[in-house]
Design brief:
CATH topology of the largest domain: Rhomboid-like fold
Number of domains: 2
Order of helices and strands: EHEEHHHHHHHHHHH
Structural class: mainly alpha
Strand content: 5-15%
Distance between the termini: 21 Å
Shape: elongated
Strand order of the largest sheet: 1-3-2
CATH class of the largest domain: Mainly Alpha
Helix content: 55-70%
CATH superfamily of the largest domain: Rhomboid-like
Number of helices: 12
CATH architecture of the largest domain: Up-down Bundle
Amino acid sequence: MRRVAVFETENHALRFWSFLKKQGVESSLENIDSDKDEFCEIWVAEEDQVSSALSYLKDFNSNPDDPKYSSVSKKEKDRKEKNLSGRRGFMEFNLRNKWQTRERATGTVTLSLIITCVAVFLLSGMGKNTEMVGGFFISEKLDGQLSEFLSGEIWRVFTPIFLHFNFLHILFNMFWLHDLGGQIEKRKGPKFFVSFILILALASNLTQFILTGPAFGGMSGVVYGLFGYVWVKTRLDPADGFRLDPMVAMIMFGFFLICFTGLFGGIANWAHAGGLGVGIAWGYASAYRWNQGRR
C-alpha cells in the first residue's frame, strides 16, 4: 500500500481515481484535514501496481482535462462527491477496512518464522540440547573455515537465526519479528520478504562468525535489519506507509549500543551490526530510488 498522489481539488482527485479504477488499479480515494491545503489522497493497494499508477499520474498532470479522464457518469460522480463531503474518508469496496484487516493479521511468512523459532526453542530444551543446537550452528568446528558449508551443508549459513537460549531472548525477537517483519511482508509481499530475510540472515550470521566464531544463534541480527529498513523508510519514504515510533527507535539504538558494553552478557553484537547495516543500506537505496523516480 502506497500513497501515489495528493490533490488540492476533489474534482481532479475524482477524475484520476476513476481513471485508475477503469485501468484495473485497486486504489482508495480519501480526504484529509480540510483545514490543510492538500485535500485528497490516493493510495494504491498493491505494490506491483504502483509504477503503473505513477505513469498514469504523470500523464494526468500534463493534461487533466483530457476527455479520457471524464468518462464517469454524473450519477456516479455525484455519489462520490457526496461521500467525500459527508465524511472524512471515502473508499471503494471498503478498501480501508480491507487494509486494516490485513494490518492486524500476521503475514504467512512471518507466522511461519515465529512458529519455527518457537518449535526449535522448545524441542532443543530452550537451547540446552547441545546435539540439536549444534546442528543449527553455522559450524560445529572451530577451524574458521565453514567446513560443513563447504561440504554441501549450505543451510548452515541461515539456520542460526532459529536458535534461542532463554525466554527473554525469544520473546524480544519474536515480538519485533511480528511487528517489523509483519509490516514489511504486508507492504512488499512475501517474495520480497523471504529474499530480504535470507539476505539479512546471511549477512548477520557471516559477520558474527568472522569476528567471533561459530557458537551463536538468534533472530536478533535479522530483527535489527528489519528495524534499520523500516527506520529509514519512515524517515525518507513515508508514503510507503511504514510506522515506527521515534521513542522505539531510540530504545532499539540504545539497546544496540549497550549490548556492546557486555552488560547483558554473551550477545551476538556483530550479528546485530551486520543486520542493521544491511537493513539501513537497503532502506536508503529503496527510498532513494523512489524519490528519484518522483522528480
